[in-house]
Amino acid sequence: MIKRRESKQISIGNVKIGGDAPISVQSMCNTDTRDIEKTCSQINELAQKGCDIVRLAVLNKDAAEAIKEIVKKSSVPLVADIHFDYRLAIQCINNGIAALRINPGNIGKRENVEKVVKLAKQQQIPIRIGVNAGSLEKDLIEKNIPLSEKMVISAMSHIKILEDLDFDMIKVSLKSSDVMTTIEAYRAIAEKIPYPLHLGVTEAGTLRGGLIKSSIGLGTLLAEGIGDTIRVSLTENPVEEVSAGIDILKSLGLKTGGVNFVSCPTCGRTQIDLISLAKKVEERFKDLDKPITIATMGCAVNGPGEARNADFGIAGGIGEGYIFKKGEIIAKVPENQLLEKLEEAIKKSYE
Predict the structure, then answer these.
(1) Mean pLDDT of the residues in the chain
(2) Are residues 203 and 177 in the same domain?
(3) Does residue 40 form part of some domain?
(4) With CB atoms 3.0 to 4.6 Å apart as the test, which of 45, 184, 217, 229 could cross-link to 201 if both were Cys?
(5) DSSP letter assigned to residue 228
(6) Does residue 233 surpass a pLDDT of 90?
(7) Crossing angle for the helix pair 147-164 and 179-190, nearest 10 degrees?
(8) Exposed, middle or buried, 161 (CB in 10 Å: 0-12/13-18/19+)?
(9) Where is 217: in which H helix or E strand?
(10) What is the per-residue DSSP string for 88-117?
């Protein structure tokens, strides 16, 4: 069992972050926040897939004004992503946002930061300090030290700004597009601060490459007990980010619920179109909200035995297949009935 890093607990709306709270999954809308209908539709889609917190880009006053209506219609807490204009942060707080993502160093004079922090403290609005390897301060860029160290120095300076203003509802992220830089930065800051950490490999890429980078980066840190919220950044529909984040947590035993799919690789013993069958099984049961494992195995010789820990499964044959439960074959059926009979067996177990 993974021993989590101890951290201060904060709340973003009704979602607790850090401490002994479950690790939450986040994503970000790619809609124009000014378009209330489209933004609310995407938030709802993300929430249905299991997203705990959604971030919105707030580029101007019209977007900040739209927050008022979006918050009313959202079933999950929302975070406003603010750059450069402190007035947008204040407007979002007044319009009911649950949290802010800012860099105190890039929203102007100290008096402007103080205005934001004072109101956030009054309204109990947490602030995420988001450090990105690609947008560090000029003096840090020129230093001859590892990039991960530069990121930590930047984060610590921003944290100090908030702490000096007696503000501690803080969450921190240090994201790089390089996996090892990301890992090194989070490891280093995890030992320096008590605040919860939001994990992500930024600009990870399209679906395949992004999943690999994020799985390695986030998975490594989570396995070490580091991380309190996660976002899998993908150049893809944000729904894919949520699904990937949930799967990463489930693979480490950090989240339960929903179906765990397993399937064997193809080999010379396979007598059925295993690749197609496995995809059909995942598609058929992807929305089943039951904490079970379903296996799709290529042959009846080894399949049921190798997947005996699965609650239910299919083992392929020549034009037919076997339905098994906990390694025991319970039915032999024609290939074209495999999905139907598997579904019947699963439903029967929950009657």
Answers:
(1) 91
(2) yes
(3) yes
(4) 217
(5) S
(6) yes
(7) 40
(8) middle
(9) helix 207-223
(10) HHHHHHHTT-SEEEE-GGGS-SHHHHHHHH
Which pLDDT value is given to residue 300? 75
Structure tokens at 46: 């993300």
Q: What are the strands, taking DSSP E only, across the chain? A: 10-12, 15-17, 24-28, 53-57, 78-81, 99-102, 127-132, 170-175, 198-199, 229-230, 260-263, 293-297, 312-316, 320-325, 328-334
Query: Containing domain of residue 273, as a range?
Result: 260-349
Q: Assess whether 297 and 186 both reside in one domain.
A: no
- State yes or no: pLDDT of 153 exceeds 70: yes
How many CB atoms are closer than 10 A to CB 253? 10
pLDDT score for 78: 98
Task: List, for residues 38-59, the tens digit of each pLDDT value.
Answer: 999 999 999 999 999 999 999 9
Q: What is the pTM of this model?
A: 0.89
Q: Which residue, 213, 229, 251, sits at the end of a domain?
A: 251
Cα gap 202→234, rounded to integer Å: 8
Token code pair at residue 316: 């392929």
Q: How many domains does the chain have?
A: 2
The answer to whether position 3 is within a domain reads: no
Element (H, E) at 339: helix 338-349
Beta partners for residue 108, in sequence order? none
Radius of gyration in angstroms for the set of CA atoms belonging to the chain, rounded to a whole number: 23
Query: Do both 223 and 81 map to the same domain?
Result: yes
> How far, in Å, CA of 258 to CA of 64, rounded?
36
DSSP assignment string, 157-211: HHHHHHHHTT---EEEEEE-SSHHHHHHHHHHHHTT--S-BEE--TT--SHHHHH
* pLDDT tens digit sequence for 265-286: 888 778 788 898 899 999 999 8
